[in-house]
Amino acid sequence: MIAWKEKNGLRIGTFPALEALAPALRVWFTTRNGGVSSPPFDSLNLGSHVGDRRSDVLENRRRLKKALGIGNNRVARGGQVHGTSIAQVTRGGKYGDTDGFLTRSKDLALAINSADCFPLVIHSPSERVLATLHVGRSGAAESIIEKAFALLYETYRIDPGNTVAICGPGICPNCYEVSRAVAMELPPRARIKRAGGWHLDLPRFIRTETVRAGIRPANYFDSGLCTSCDSSLFSYRRDGGKTGRNWTIAMMVNR
Fold first, then answer.
1. pTM of the full predicted structure?
2. What φ, ψ does residue 99 adopt, rounded to 5°?
3. Helices (runs of H) and strands (runs of E) counted in the chain
4. DSSP-derived 3-state class of residue 5
5. How far apart (Å, rounded) are the C-alpha atoms in residues 246 and 223?
6. Please, where are the H alpha helices in 114-213?
7. How many CB atoms lie within 10 A of CB 211?
8. How far apart are CA 216 and CA 171, in angstroms?
9. How far apart are the first and last CA of the chain?
10. Which of 41, 62, 66, 234 is most deeply packed, by most CB within 10 A?
11. Are the C-beta atoms of 128 and 104 separated by less than 8 Å?
12. Distance, CA of 107 to CA of 82 (rounded, Å)
């Protein structure tokens, strides 16, 4: 279950239950509160591509890194084009058309930018490897989760028995109504037919795909937060496309 902490005026979400299973892993979720951005990006907008003032975004990121104790130039972030490209990284910076990261580097923060899509964190304590994925409907349809696990197994030989997975905030099925054509792009386990139309259930799909890949259900953690329902989070759909971005940050530390 997610727990909230106040850090330097920012409200940050964490998963205390991870401490026993993955003591070297840190996962943080941001809210929209505690920054300097003006409406409609108020106030802790962390996305630089949404129309917000660049100086405000940089100040928001500075505040977040200070609150979490992340060093300068130690954040890797992707362009996130709703694809399946996964980069293996050892240093911070922006990585163009990238929707996922893999690393073995300590104290390197991997940031996932979102405002309805889901951040997924995967960590193998025994192999000391960390992955983060940006999972929206396009990435889900194109099997970004399956691709990430193939890399983790083939490249790093992770042990699924002790690997943990954490799914952060994203849009819930009640809020995610789509056309029939869009619903048919995903397998049956990702869609719901209701009297009023079709809905996508990405939380269920992400959990199912992760467990199918070998992760024990007891080692899967879901924030249970809907970006559209929760006004403390940015939501692209709820806010009509003019809004900021939340960050999910994952990092391995020396223990």
1. 0.96
2. -115, 5
3. 6, 16
4. strand
5. 14
6. 137-141, 144-156, 180-183, 202-212
7. 15
8. 24
9. 23
10. 234
11. yes
12. 26
The mean pLDDT of the chain is: 96
The alpha helices in 40-189, defined as continuous H runs, are: 54-68, 137-141, 144-156, 180-183
Q: Is 26 helix (H, G, I), strand (E, B) or coil?
A: strand
Would you say 173 and 226 are in contact if contact means Cβ atoms under 8 Å apart?
no
Within 8 A by CB and 6+ apart from 69, the residues are none
What is the Cα–Cα distance from 175 to 252, expressed in whole angstroms? 33
Question: Under a CB-based contact definition with an 8 Å cutoff, are residues 124 and 161 in contact?
Answer: no
Place of tokens 């009297």: 195
Name residue 1's amino acid.
Answer: M
Q: What is the DSSP letter of 218?
A: G
- Residue 188 has a CB neighbour count (10 Å cut-off) of 10
CB distance 171 to 116 below 8 Å: yes
Contact 209, 146 (CB under 8 A): yes
**pLDDT reading at 96 higher than 90:** no
Q: Residue 79: what pLDDT?
A: 87
